[in-house]
Amino acid sequence: MFRLIKASNSVRSSPLKNQLKPAAKLISLRQAGTSATQRFSPPVQRLQRPRRSWGRIFLATTGVISLTGFALWYTIFPHHPYSSDVAKELRKALHAELDRPSSPVDYQLALKHYIQAIDLCDEEGLDILSDAYTGIQLKIGEMYERLGLPAEALLTYSSIASTYLAALTTPGRIDDKDRAHYIQKDLRVVVKCVELNGRDVKGCMMLLMTHFIVAQSEVRRRSIEADQLIHSEEAHIENDLSVTKDGRLKKCPEAWTPFRDELFNARDLYVALCLSSGNLSDAVRTKIATTEWMLHADCPPGEILLSQCNLGAIMYLQAEEFEVREFSGVKGGNEELRLEGKAGKERCLSLSQECYESVLSFAKNLPYELRRGDMAVEESIALSTYGLGVIKLHIGDFTSAKNLLRESRLRAKGAGFDDLVTEAERELKKLNQEEETHGGSLENKDRIEQLLQASEQGMGEVPIEMDIQLTKHSATATSATPTPAPAPTTSSK
Questions:
Q1: Rg (CA), the chain
Q2: pTM for the full model?
Q3: Nearest to 231 by CA among 246, 216, 253, 211
Q4: Around Cβ 454, how many Cβ atoms within 10 Å?
Q5: pLDDT at residue 44 above 60?
């Protein structure tokens, strides 16, 4: 027993034990280092799920459900001021207007349903001024037009216009905030009535004047500046014919909205009726005022310049009328009539030239981008150049006339104004023919001498006819292309 214990002690103190001590120490150091690293390493941050916001989820869900419900309601359920019976008739009328392979267009059937719908509206007491009621009336008028019944269509439109006029002239019938809307609709219907009843010139002139005076009264109520302008026109105060005073005129477009285009279109239609009836003095006065009002209403420059071109054309026509008086005085030996006609002719030609020159001066001061962006500006320049050429041709200044006509042809080609190109080429062709007749040159002659020579020779027309261009202001106001129309020549009178 003693030996075994001793032997074990001897093993512990043997050289093998001494060899194992460094290894054991190294292992203990590694373990100590590992534990130290673990002790000083930063803690690992674990991602935590955000807490749910049940309030936001509820609001989002409620919003989606509300929008979906509103879309379904707007799509499926009807939302109009008509009752179910009236809506049923209107749907039948609209279906009759559709051109489908199974059922072609039937305007007669559509008219029947529209009339039944308006009868139901009368029974239900729908306001005759409401857009719902007048909308059905307008469709009835349209159906009459499509069926080739203009008299019935005119009767329908006249009924609407009378209703509007009675309401606009009755104090308290229409709220002030709604008057502009009804004036706009009234002017549109009145213009339609005039288009369908063009034969009754006097009646149409009175109709237009009655209705656009109501519109002008509304403008005067809105603006002091406009009140003064309209008073000058109604008092027959002579105004400046130049459009170059644009910078001196205070603009107030709010006074003319939203019926600005409808009012100016109605006044231009009145001018056309004045011309057709031979009332040139009223045509001139109305056109002068309209052009000045367009400046105050801040209309696009192209529309203002085209209106000024029309004014120049009207003044030229009045000059031709005075020339007829002068010619009659010379031929009949009436010196007083001759002098009166000559003075009136010279004044009107001077005013016409002033109109065209003011257009060119006004357009020259416009920015280049505006001139190129608005084709009406380029067209007005071409028209004014052509008008000046016609005036020079009329007074016998053939050299200047030829240069101006060539320039107008060039400008008209650049603006795509094909009708004016044709007119300019026609006048140049006449000038060339006259040059060939007179041996390559034209002498400046007084216009009355030309008329007397033509009368003595028994010629049906003078050697050179004078044509002038008139354009009509469009209700769309932004993009109408003027179409030239030859005016009556002196020889035709």
A1: 43
A2: 0.72
A3: 216
A4: 16
A5: no
